[in-house]
Structure formats: C-alpha cells, structure tokens
Design goal:
The protein is of the alpha/beta class and about 475 residues long. It has helices at about 1-40, 55-75, 85-115, 120-145, 155-165, 170-210, 265-270, 300-305, 320-330, 350-360, 365-390, 405-415, 415-425, 425-430, 455-464; strands spanning about 220-225, 230-240, 250, 275-280, 315-320, 335-345, 445-450. The chain is built from 15 helices and seven strands. The longest helix is centred in the N-terminal third of the chain and has 40 residues, at about 1-40.
Length: about 475
C-alpha cells in the first residue's frame, strides 16, 4: 500500500516536470529573441526613445542562460550507479546555487523597481526569478521521481555509456571525455554568471540611488514643434522673487549637464534677490528620454521657454556647449532675449581647428584626425554604455566634485544611464560643423557678455 502511494506520488511529481520543461524552452526562446532585438537597437538606441539597450540585453543573457540550465536539469540523464552521498551533495550544491541566484534576481527586481526608469528591466528580472525558482523545483522533482510513470524520460547515464561502450570502446572514451568537459564548462559558466549577476546588482543599485535625490522642481508637458503631435515632460526649477522689474536668468549647457550643475548658482542669485530658472533637458535627470529622432534642442526649446510662465525677455547664460544654444535662440527669437552671457564658450570644434592651425594640416589631414577622434569617443561611449553603466563601474570614469553643496547629486547624475546614452546619441551633432550661425549678427537690443575662466599655470598643468 505504501509502495503504491509512493509510486503514485512519483508519477504526479514526474508529470509536473513537463510544464517546467515547456516553460523553460519558452523562456529560452524569449531570452534569445530579446538578445537579438536589444542587440539590433544598440546602434540606433531604440525603436522610440533613446535608451541604453545594453541593460535589457544583459538581462536577456541571464534569462537565456538560466533557462538553458532548466532544460539541462530536466533532460540530463540520471545516474543510478552514483553513490548516494555524492547525489545528495550535488543536489544541495545545485539548490544553494539557484537559491542564491533567486535571491540575487529578487534584489535586481527591487532595485530596478526603486529606480523606476526601466519597466523592461523589471519584467526581465521577474522572468529570471521564476526560472530560478523552477530550477529548484525541477531539482527536487528529479530527486524524488523520474519523468512519467516510473520510466526515465531518457536512459540512465550509466546505461548510456554502457550502450556506447558495447558499440565501440574508443567512442566510449571520447564520450566520457566530452561529458567531463561539458560538466567543467557548465560549472565555470555558472560561476561566471554568478559574478555577472553581482555586477548587474551593482549597476541597478547605482540607478536606484535616484531616490536619494528627490525632484526639486516641477514637470511640465511640452508639445514638440515638429508636427508629430508628441510631447515631453521636462523638469525645471524657477526660484527667486517674481515682483519688481528684474529679468529672469536662464542657465543653459549642452546635453551633458542638467539642473543640478547650476543649483548652487541659482541659490546664490536667489539670495541676491534675483530670479532664475534651471532645468533638465530631455534625456537628462528627471525629464523624459529623448525621442529617437531628436538630435538637438530645436524641437522643444521655444515651446518650453514660453510654457513655464516666466516673464520675458530672458537673461540667458550659456556655459560651454550651451553658448551655441542661446546664441541660436537669440537669432531666431530676439524678442525673448534681453542679453547673452557666455561662460567659457568657444567656437564649435575648436579642439580640432586649433590642432589644424597649430600643425598646419591640410583639410584632408584635419578630416582624418577628426574622424579618428570621433571613432575613439564612440568606442569609449560604447564601453561606458555597454559595460560601466549596467555593471555599476561608473566610478572609474566619473569622479566627485567637492566644490558644490550638491556634489554627490552631480556625481550621481553624471553616472546614470540617461546622461551617457544621451551624450552618445548627440555625438555626431557635436562633431558636425554647426558654427555658421555664429557669423550672423544679433539684434542690437541684445547685449553680449563674455566670461572666460582664468587659471594659473599650475592649474592648467594639473587638469590638462
């Protein structure tokens, strides 16, 4: 009677292995498809938004590997000749391994949920958790029962080798060698993917630190002026007195620097009784991701500045690459600009043209040098976006600033997925010859101020 009940239990446990196997195969196919799709979009940044595709790609790699492990567990022949103590040790080690992976994938899920910027990553981590849980279930099921009504799904391991040996002694030796090699490779891969999971946890932990820097300003939905009917949420912060006749300062930079970089300046102006606005461009900070076809500020800039309810004209302050943005805006909308102030602003491409003049290069030599620099930066951005950001290694590339009250926040934003994938997407635009508009004269009502930071020789030597 006991034997009959046990046999029935083994039968039902064995039957449960079939849906586990089917689910694993479906997840394996999904992971492979995900790798193909994400891999295809790594060059174009995405089907709709400019997003770091490597985050999803690496998660699909994890899903594919652990799904393959489930298939391996389900289809691997048993070995009735193996000593029981070895079978118990193998079972415990396997359960501990997948238990650790299950906990790690749950941590990934929590961290990506906390960050709130990658819903696709949340979905992938859920699938990874499920497949790791099924791996544990599959191991336990195989321990208690063979697949089906007391019949192995595929022959016993020792029987397989016996059959091969009967056919050919040489083939038996080769088969055993391949079998041992496969086991060693699988163990190494498990170890590698355990480290890999730890790196992804580090990357998701860095992304989740966004909760340490809550939004200080407001979001406004800005319609794009490209006729597409689309809009973007832009994060901005305006502070200072609204009464009186003083003008509002607007601080502008390139697609690297968001509101946090100007926060201390804004606080200083507020203390002086002046009003100012700072903001995150789309693709930075708390603003929405850039759309795939957005390469500069032209699609949102005018609508944004006329939607935030500030008194015009603006006193526009451009820092670095922001100088070209405010100059172009002043040319197109002089009625909205009171004055322009350039902070360390130089003509576009001066780092290349200065080398051409210094070394007396021909145009062909100049173009070769410029293209080499562009390829070098693309490679660097590829390493950052593909490895450093997803794996939490941005401290290698981004140091902290000790000169501002919000230095940690600036460092955080400079380490995020958005900042670097956005920089990468506008790299070609930054390298293009966009300085022709600087030859056009501004309206005489707009005053221009130029501020160039002065440093001594020791500073130049230290920082260049």
């Amino acid at each position: 009677m006991i034997s009959e009940s046990r046999g029935r239990a083994q039968f039902f446990i064995g039957i449960l292995q079939w849906p586990v196997l089917v689910w694993a195969i479906l997840n394996l196919a999904t992971g492979i498809l995900g790798m193909i799709v994400y891999g295809a979009f790594t060059a174009s940044y995405g089907p709709v938004y400019i997003v770091n595709q490597f985050v999803g790609l690496w998660l699909c790699v994890l899903l594919t590997f652990f799904s393959a492990q489930t298939v391996y567990i389900e289809l691997k022949p048993g070995d009735s000749s193996e000593r029981r103590i070895l079978r118990v040790i193998t079972l415990v080690v396997n359960i501990l391994y997948f238990g650790v992976i299950l906990v790690g994938s749950f941590i990934l899920f929590v961290l990506y949920s906390r960050a709130g910027t990658r819903p696709d990553a949340i979905v992938w981590t859920i699938l990874i958790m499920i497949i790791c849980l099924l791996n544990v279930i599959a191991l336990i099921c195989r321990w208690y029962s063979s697949v089906g009504a007391g019949k192995e799904f595929i022959p016993d391991e020792s029987k397989c080798f016996q059959l091969i040996k009967e056919k050919s002694a040489g083939a038996s030796g080769v088969s055993m060698c391949l079998y041992i090699t496969a086991i060693v490779v699988n163990v190494l891969l498990r170890f590698i993917f355990l480290i890999f999971l730890g790196l992804l946890i580090s990357g998701s932990s860095a992304a989740s630190n966004i909760k340490n820097y809550p939004m200080k300003g407001k979001l406004i939905s800005v319609p794009l002026n490209d006729g597409s009917g689309r809009s973007q949420n832009i994060h901005y912060l305006c502070e200072g007195p609204t009464e009186g006749n003083s003008f509002t300062f607007l601080f502008e930079g390139d697609f690297t620097h968001g509101y946090a970089d100007y926060y201390d300046i804004q606080r200083y102006l507020t203390a002086l009784g002046r009003r100012s606005c700072i903001y995150d461009k789309p693709g930075l900070g708390y603003s929405d991701y850039l759309y795939k076809d957005q390469k500069d500020e032209s699609t949102f800039y005018y609508n944004f500045l006329t939607s935030i309810g500030e008194k015009t004209p603006y006193v526009m302050v451009g820092w670095g690459g922001g100088g070209h943005i405010i100059y172009k805006f002043a040319l197109e909308h002089p009625e909205l600009v009171k004055s322009l102030t350039f902070l360390d602003v130089f003509p576009p491409g001066i780092e290349f043209t200065s080398m051409k003049d210094l070394k007396n290069w021909s145009q062909e030599q100049f173009n070769t040098y410029k293209n080499q620099e562009l390829r070098g930066r693309r490679t660097l951005f590829g390493i950052i976006n593909g490895l450093a950001v997803p794996w939490g290694l941005m401290s290698i590339f981004v140091g902290s600033s000790s000169n501002t009250s919000n230095a940690d926040e600036i460092t955080f934003w400079m380490s995020t997925e958005k900042t670097w994938i956005t920089q990468s997407s506008v790299l070609d635009t930054a390298y293009a010859d966009t300085g022709s508009y600087l030859k056009q004269n501004l309206t005489s009502t707009i005053s221009v101020n130029l501020v160039v930071t002065k440093h001594d020789d020791n500073w130049v030597i230290k920082n260049n």
